[in-house]
Write a structure and sequence with these properties.
Length: 114
């Protein structure tokens, strides 16, 4: 059973940066592409970014393109995926979730406020 654990969220001001991490452990986590989603208060879950299982292809949502970057590190037994977020806006405030296949992490809160 793959388990996903996010970290790196926090409270920042507009224009600042954060890097989220998601560690996928257990099972055959290396077989899965990994994704980031987010959910703002009162809104549905929104796709943010994805990376293939071998890390050779990525995609980011138009809403964050040019500001967010997804990358992966599967050098160790546990796969880790990162979401580098730059030039954060108040509209990026949300709980950010890591996803792989049908598995979801519990999320990490990102709050952007002046």
């Amino acid at each position: 059973q793959v388990q996903l654990l996010e970290s790196g969220g926090g409270l920042v001001q507009p224009g600042e940066s954060l890097r989220l991490s998601c560690v996928a452990s257990g099972g055959t986590s290396s077989n899965f592409g990994m994704n980031w989603f987010r959910q703002a208060p009162g809104k549905g879950r929104e796709f943010v970014a994805a990376i293939t299982s071998n890390g050779d292809s990525t995609v980011v949502a138009d809403s964050v393109k040019g500001r967010f970057t997804i990358s992966g590190d599967n050098a160790n037994a546990d796969n880790t995926v990162y979401l580098q977020m730059r030039s954060l806006k108040t509209g990026d405030t949300a709980v950010y979730y890591c996803n792989a296949g049908s598995m979801w992490g519990e999320g990490t809160q990102v709050t952007v406020t002046s």
